[in-house]
């Protein structure tokens, strides 16, 4: 997916100076921005490592430093076996299976683990941080598999696949996307494979980085899609002869929900100066008392989704300010076990977003269906067909939207309410946050496609209202759609390419840009 132009994002991101923002995650993960380690991070990294090395020499066992892991935490490991211990941890935990995870997700995972390493709370050597930064900048993307994380003790398997590549083992994609051996990719980039010392294996794999990276990407996508949802709703309202009176600011103020107010403001702006809307304001011309819920309640539904995204952003920003590892090196020089790797906070909002996404798509599909039904569209031809009976118009486009919405409802079932114990009951409650993130990615893609179908439908319906014309904002959107080669009314043609082109237009940000010529015009 791509919803933010690379030109609007940083071309490099400073790591270890302060918490990253979701936009910075997107810049590196999706648009290939380079990373640089903040100068003051090296002092923290070095101090933490000195503490780990002192504890490694202590005859008393310290978890993750001189012991085994998980259910084997009571097993003392002799110094001469600890390198093997660390390498064995990575190899054994790189147990993912299934399809390759998308490049942008792996890069987000990689960046967020680097950010935690740079906090100085993990105890790794500076060379580990340097290697992870160099791999990102070289465009080396380790192969991470779809299944393997339970979202507790962090995203263990995905992070282990990343660490395995840093050891020069396994496979990666290079900058061109070619599949190559990790050892060859490192050699070509002039990066020496890591040999892990005490504590470093754990430090590389304990964290919520995968689910958090996918959350940051989803927030970026949804910022755009929420605006597009308001735009496609405006197209539907206008072309179905709906009223904009219900979106008045004083009516919105009676229910002071911030997201609702923002969506209503968008709708007012999008429908402003519309001859189509003005054509039926006179009660003598239009005798309808109220529009259907899918038209009239658009800001209430869209606004609730906006508020859900705002809440998810708060959780994401807190997590981006976190140093998730176990054990963790504290600011006062202690090494303490903890449970901060549990993914529950992130998993919950990932599931919450999936619910909001499903409902956004559901109301959009209902608006689309109304436009195609001659008994409810107020004068539009059945299915917006050219020659009714011979042509089917957009009949089956609505089927596609309905099929997607049905799937989105299934994807809205929370993953975070599930838990399967692991590690011989040591890890007896897990978050399933990785699974929540994976299904949200599919849901966001589905939402974009449902909105694209409403976009195509609404623009064709506007054309069929001629000689009445839409307002300036919706006319600009229609012009952008037509400029992309998406056909208006006429005999039946191959519909799928139009829907794919419309989806690309939605995801590119071009629809939002056409409707709101400057970002500051968007509430």
Would you give an account of this structure?
The structure is a single chain. The chain is mainly α and 523 residues long. The protein folds into 2 domains: 6-207, Fumarase/aspartase (N-terminal domain) (Fumarase C, Chain B, domain 1), CATH 1.10.275; 215-521, Fumarase/aspartase (Central domain) (Fumarase C, Chain A, domain 2), CATH 1.20.200.10. The chain has 20 helices and 9 strands. It has helices spanning 22-31, 41-56, 82-93, 103-117, 126-137, 156-166, 182-188, 200-205, 209-239, 249-253, 258-271, 275-278, 293-296, 298-320, 344-372, 395-411, 433-463, 472-483, 496-508, 510-515; strands at 12-15, 34-37, 97-100, 141-142, 145-147, 171-173, 179-181, 328-329, 335-336. Strand 1, helix 1 (22-31) and strand 2 (34-37) form a beta-alpha-beta unit.
Q: How are the SSEs ordered, and which strands pair?
A:
Blueprint lengths: L11 E4 L6 H10 L2 E4 L3 H16 L25 H12 L3 E4 L2 H15 L8 H12 L3 E2 L2 E3 L8 H11 L4 E3 L5 E3 H7 L11 H6 L3 H31 L9 H5 L4 H14 L3 H4 L14 H4 L1 H23 L7 E2 L5 E2 L7 H29 L22 H17 L21 H31 L8 H12 L12 H13 L1 H6 L8
Parallel strand pairs: 1-2
Antiparallel strand pairs: 3-5, 4-6, 6-7, 8-9
Helix pairs in contact: 1-4, 1-9, 3-6, 4-5, 4-9, 9-11, 9-14, 9-15, 9-17, 11-14, 14-15, 15-16, 15-17, 16-17, 17-18, 17-19
CATH class group of the largest domain: Mainly Alpha
Q: Helical content, roughly?
A: 40-55%
**Number of structural domains:** 2
Question: Which band does the percent of strand residues land in?
Answer: 5-15%
Rg calculated over all Cα atoms? 26 Å
Subcellular location: Cytoplasm
Catalytic activity: L-histidine = trans-urocanate + NH4(+)
Pathway: Amino-acid degradation; L-histidine degradation into L-glutamate; N-formimidoyl-L-glutamate from L-histidine: step 1/3
InterPro entries: Aromatic_Lyase, Fumarase/histidase_N, HutH, L-Aspartase-like, Phe/His_NH3-lyase_AS
